[in-house]
TrEMBL record:
Region feature (Disordered): 1-27
Protein name listed in UniProt: Cytochrome b5 reductase 4
Any one cellular-component term (Gene Ontology): endoplasmic reticulum
Lineage: Eukaryota, Metazoa, Chordata, Craniata, Vertebrata
Domain (Cytochrome b5 heme-binding) ranges: 54-130
Organism for this UniProt entry: Pteropus alecto (Black flying fox)
Length: 510
């Protein structure tokens, strides 16, 4: 439903023509870009027709507002008059109308849960849903989980705490075996302590307004075989605490991850390096009071305020290089997150990101994504199909696969770009292929110069059937694919035609 549109009508081959999930975007009229929408929301115009009043909306009332020129939609308990936004919605008016006069939360979550509609639609806020005794699913305000413990949910974790003169230790008993340091995200911001443990598709939250101050840094340890997480906080003063503090939203609850909002912390821009003519390597530093490791194959959302409106876009963290000895890790611990980001001169977000100075801040969300490391189990052949910045998830996958999968025989990357100048980390890739005989790289260019004597064209049956040769007849194979949505969709179709099963394909989409 709601989405972040491009600055103006996207180019024919632009990624913006198709949204995630394969839904087509519609051409927006001139003057209906996100920037134009932001300007309208700042103009002081009454966009709700309620002259700034907020009202309680009953279900009966909501149902009445179901026409294009009078369209109210409820998202997480809040009701918006989206009629003024209709023409600015990249998914089109019809898509918005699917939720007219009703609760659009599920529809919104299916399509783009991460879009910061609160900020984008704040001038369209009509009010809250009137709470009924039995509240229907999806009508709950954001603070309440819709389905705290579904049948299939994991056993609920529990926690405990203890203290010494100088330390407070919080112990989370997840009652799960496959917990590691990636599974827990800890933040201490504005006197609030938040530890989110990801257990399958669920999130268990410890969220407390602490009774006393603590120092910024803390340690996080995981005892993997028993699923125990220990977070050791340092007291600022050596006093005895009688309680940990007061519970905040969703504290001590296990809730489906899709029902949790994105949580952000401010990260500092440490460096920015040219990689190609339009792609840069950004290094961001997490605050000392954050523990966060982005799992392989997952992305985060970066948030910037552009002309007073919060804009959010997804990006996939990479390692700082493909070869550890190619470039010594300058920065020692897990406090740094690297991104390869292409700057689109006509784009909304990336030029703004590019204008940031070293030392400036960007908000970074907790990780999202459905890639599972278990997909690597017993893997023998790994094929990676990447187009443009669709290379980014492949970076950590390559690093991990070549060092951690003992059964691996072959890793092949087919990397689609327009020209040679667009190839990200070409020399690193070639060095890696030279160094590790299991790894092969094939570059395919869609707009090469006459000097190019490598492969040319777009993803095609001929290219794929030649490339995707198993090392053994029945070897266990995984194919990862990422790039512009139409590229990914076409690739998946071709892979099915070549008889690869669903389990053998992982496609990266938002
Ligand atoms: P937009 O405003 O969205 O514009 C994008 C395109 O539209 C550009 O091609 C722009 O030139 C074109 N356009 C805009 N206006 C016009 C016009 N008038 N005429 C013609 N064309 C026009 N990107 C990365 O670089 N690195 C990553 O690691 C990365 N990870 C991602 C992970 C996920 C899960 C997803 C879904 C996307 C990822 N992306 C990544 C893409 C990223 O999220 C953004 O879509 C991208 O950075 C463009 O954002 P923007 O706001 O600058 O551009
Ligand atoms: P690009 O340079 O425009 O394109 C890279 C290559 O893909 C070019 O050879 C291009 O050919 C080809 N291509 C484009 N559209 C195609 C199509 N419909 N069918 C076949 N080939 C096609 O790419 P980019 O600007 O870097 O964009 C990268 C995309 O990857 C973005 O859409 C981004 O959102 C996405 N991405 C997704 C994730 C994720 O996790 N989901 C992560 C990173 C990036 P032409 O010369 O014909 O254009």
């Amino acid at each position: 439903m709601l989405n972040v549109p491009s600055q103006s009508f996207p180019a024919p081959s632009s990624q913006q023509r198709v949204a995630s999930g394969g839904r087509s975007k519609v051409p927006l009229k001139q003057g209906r870009s996100l920037m134009d929408w932001i300007r309208l929301t700042k103009s002081g115009k009454d966009l709700t027709g309620l002259k700034g009043r907020l009202i309680e909306v009953t279900e009966e009332e909501l149902k009445k507002h179901n026409k294009k020129d009078d369209c109210w939609i409820c998202i997480r308990g809040f009701v918006y008059n989206v009629s003024p936004y209709m023409e600015y919605h990249p998914g089109g008016e019809d898509e918005l109308m699917r939720a007219a006069g009703s609760d659009g939360t599920d529809l919104f979550d299916q399509v783009h849960r991460w879009v910061n509609y609160e900020s984008m639609l704040k001038e369209c806020l009509v009010g809250r849903m009137a709470v009924k005794s039995a509240v229907p699913k999806g009508m709950l305000p954001k603070s309440q989980p819709t389905n705290p413990l579904a049948k299939e949910s994991p056993v609920s974790p529990s926690y405990d705490w203890f203290q010494t003169d100088s330390l407070v230790t919080i112990v989370i008993y997840t009652k799960q075996k496959d917990i590691n340091l990636d599974s827990v995200i800890v933040d201490y911001q504005d006197d609030s302590f938040r530890a989110e443990t990801i257990i399958k598709d669920y999130s268990y939250l410890i969220y407390i307004g602490l009774s006393h101050e603590i120092q910024e840094d803390f340690s996080v340890q995981v005892v993997e075989n028993v699923g125990k997480i220990e977070i050791v906080l340092k007291k600022t003063e050596n006093t005895s605490w009688t309680c940990l503090g007061h519970p905040l939203e969703n504290h001590n609850l296990l809730i489906p991850k899709k029902d949790t909002g994105l949580y952000y912390r401010k990260c500092q821009l440490i460096s920015k390096e040219d990689v190609t003519h339009d792609t840069k390597l950004f290094c961001l530093m997490l605050p000392p009071s954050t523990h966060l490791q982005v799992p392989i194959g997952q992305h985060v959302y970066l948030k910037l305020t552009i002309t007073g409106t919060e804009i959010v876009k997804p990006y996939t963290p990479v390692s700082n290089s493909l070869l550890s000895e190619f470039k010594e890790p300058v920065l020692p611990n897990n406090k740094y997150i690297y991104f390869l980001i292409k700057i689109y001169p006509a784009g909304l977000f990336t030029p703004e990101l590019d204008h940031l100075q070293i030392g400036d801040f960007v908000s970074v969300s907790s990780p999202e994504g459905n890639f599972k490391i278990s997909q690597f189990q017993e893997l023998e052949d790994l094929f990676l199909l990447a187009a443009g910045t669709g290379f980014t998830p492949m970076v950590k996958i390559l690093n991990y696969a070549l060092t951690n999968i003992p059964t691996l025989r072959k890793v092949k990357l087919m990397f689609f770009n327009k020209t040679e100048d667009d190839i990200i980390w070409r020399s690193q890739l070639e060095k890696l292929a030279f160094k590790d005989k299991r790894f092969d790289i094939e570059f395919v260019l869609s707009a090469p110069t006459s000097e190019w004597n490598g492969k040319q064209g777009h993803i095609s049956p001929a290219l794929l059937s030649e490339f995707l040769k198993r090392s053994l007849d029945k070897s266990k194979v995984l194919i990862c694919i990422c790039g512009p949505m139409p590229f990914t969709e076409q690739g998946i179709r071709l892979l099915h035609d070549l008889n690869f099963s669903k389990d053998e394909i992982h496609s990266f989409t938002a």
